[in-house]
Specification:
A hairpin with a 2-residue loop joins strand 3 and strand 4. The longest helix has 8 residues. The protein has a five-stranded mixed beta sheet. The termini are far apart. By secondary structure, it is α+β, with helices and mostly antiparallel strands. It has two helices and five strands. The protein has one domain: Beta-grasp domain (Ubiquitin-like (UB roll), Roll), CATH 3.10.20.30.
Length: about 80
């Protein structure tokens, strides 16, 4: 199945793009998808599917929009 992945902040810089379409096996969790796209990177991120926060254990469906949201700094 295919999902559209959006990247923000440092994750966008690491991937070199704002978004991309990614082919993933059915049943892949958000946590698994993140680990496959950012191997060795364990930055704590929030997950969202179709603009709704989701748990790392949730699996997206074909055609979903997935976002990985890194912590933001500022003040």
């Amino acid at each position: 199945m295919k999902v559209r992945v959006l990247y923000f902040a440092a994750l966008r810089e690491a991937r070199g793009c704002r978004e991309e379409e990614v082919e993933v096996p059915v049943g892949t969790t958000l946590g698994d998808l993140y680990a496959s796209l950012f191997p060795g990177d364990r930055v704590p991120v929030a997950y969202a599917v179709n603009q709704v926060y989701a748990a790392a254990s949730e699996a997206p469906s074909d055609g979903d929009e997935v976002c990985f949201l890194p912590p933001l700094g500022g003040g």
